Amino acid sequence: MIEHIKSSYKALLKVFKENAYSTQALFSEDMSNLSSRITLGVIEKNIYLEYILAQLVKKKPANNIYIILKIGTYMLLFLNKIPDYAIVNECVNFVKSIKKSELAGFVNAILNKVDRREFKLPKETDKDYLSVTYCKPQWFIDRMIKEFGEESTLRVLKDQNETFDLEHIRLDPRVDNEETLKKLTASGAVVRKTIVGGYVVKNNATVKQLFQKGNLTFQSPSSMVAVQGLNPTNGSNILDICSAPGGKSVYMAQLCPDSTIESCDLYEHRLKLVQFYSKRMKVTNIETKAMDATILNPDFVNKFDYILVDAPCTCFGTFIKHPDVFMQHDESSIDKLSEIQLSILQNAIQYLKVGIWFIQLALCSKKRMKRL
Ligand SMILES: C[S@@+](CC[C@H](N)C(=O)[O-])C[C@H]1O[C@@H](n2cnc3c(N)ncnc32)[C@H](O)[C@@H]1O
Questions:
Q1: Ligand 1 center–CA 141 separation, angstroms
Q2: Contact present, 283 and 261 (Cβ < 8 Å)
Q3: Cα-flanking dihedrals φ and ψ of residue 182, to 5°?
Q4: Is residue 296 within 6 Å of ligand 1 at its C-beta?
């Protein structure tokens, strides 16, 4: 088991120390199913684990020991199939293996306290009950309640504990998809067709195979609707100004095979994702360009018929699928990103050919939208 603890520890060091996304951290390590489960579990339950450890540890230890305590606590509380004594022993052995033998006794003592449940959880009437129980920052809970009310907030928080094993896919609009649909149906993947023209499916082996072959792709209904709302005409000049990883660019490229989509992004390495995506989906009418969209590009002025602005955002709205969003951004990011979104929109509007309405997909706050 020590190998699983080691891989999780290495991945979590990347997340907690280097601010890496969990997907990057999981990708870069030799992860077994168990280590992935531990890594994602610690990320998802971070607030809960810290709440418990704060009661048992007088002074917060160095980051690496704290991560081992979180791994041990998570395993003791959430992985019922592994005997508790084995979890404690292996965590202690791991501490010794990273040349921290002097802290082995400390880790042993704390994990035994966790095992004996020598901690309290907040009561329903406590202010931090929702934050700790659903592992979300207090500011986020307060803001959700203020904006959506207590009932909706609770519904969303409770929903996140459902297992989501279904995915939304779309097929290639350029071809007859009869064969693909037959295969999907025969494999039992199709749950239902959606109003945006995609399908809710079980992500089985057939889906994975057809994905690799570029016959289908995973795309959320909201992402599809953004492109359908823009409704670009085939043959027109199209700019996707913040395009990586390329979901919307590729969809537009397939809908408008006689157009060239100019797909830009701030980061060269993220544009590689657009190129991989295009290649997998057999799309050849996308040109990628690294560009900071907050700086006016004179070559683009008055050039495009359609512009998609999917500006950078906090991704807080995706917290169910990506529990690490709260490690990447905090409340102050909302205003900072709104400023960036506004300056991207102000530049983008100048890239539209004169006389064309500006259709935007903006993730701006309502306040910013009003200012526009
Ligand atoms: C919401 S994502 C775009 C998702 C994409 N439209 C899709 O459907 O796959 C926002 C993107 O904006 C990029 N970005 C962030 N700051 C930027 C800037 N100043 N200029 C251009 N792109 C930026 C990020 O790298 C990220 O890839």
A1: 27
A2: no
A3: -60, -45
A4: no
Residue nearest to atom 5 of ligand 1 (CA): 243
Q: What is the pTM of this model?
A: 0.80
Domain boundaries, the chain: 2-115, 129-159, 163-218, 223-371
CATH 1.25.40.10 at 223-371, yes or no: no
**How many other C-beta atoms lie within 10 A of the C-beta of residue 122?**
14
User: Can you tell me the distance from the alpha carbon of 355 to that of 353, in angstroms, rounded to the nearest whole number?
Assistant: 6
> What single letter denotes the amino acid at residue 211?
F
Please tell me the distance between residue 243's alpha carbon and the centre of ligand 1 in angstroms. Answer: 5
Residue nearest to atom 27 of ligand 1 (CA): 244
User: Is the predicted pLDDT of residue 323 greater than 70, yes or no?
Assistant: yes
- Please report the DSSP string for 249-317 in residue order: HHHHHHH-TTS-EEEEES-HHHHHHHHHHHHHTT---EEEEE--TTS--GGGTT-BSEEE-------GG
- 8-state DSSP, 88: H
Give pLDDT tens digits for 198-231: 999 998 999 999 999 999 999 999 999 999 999 9
Ligand 1 lined by 267 (C-beta under 6 Å): yes
Query: Is the CB of 223 inside a 6 Å radius of any atom of ligand 1?
Result: yes
- Residue of 242, 254, 280, 308 to test ligand 1 pocket, by largest number of atoms within 8 Å of CB: 242
Q: Is the CB of 112 under 6 A from ligand 1?
A: no
The architecture that CATH gives domain 2-115 is Orthogonal Bundle (1.10)
**Cα–Cα distance between 198 and 214 in angstroms, integer?**
15
Name the one residue in this structure whose structure tokens are 């509007």: 349
**CA gyration radius, the chain:** 24
Distances (CA, A) of 117 to 69, 73, 322, 353: 14, 10, 29, 66
Read off the pLDDT of residues 50-77 as tens digits, 9 standing for 90 and up. Answer: 999 999 999 999 999 999 999 999 999 9
Q: Which fold has domain 163-218?
A: Alpha-Beta Plaits (3.30.70)
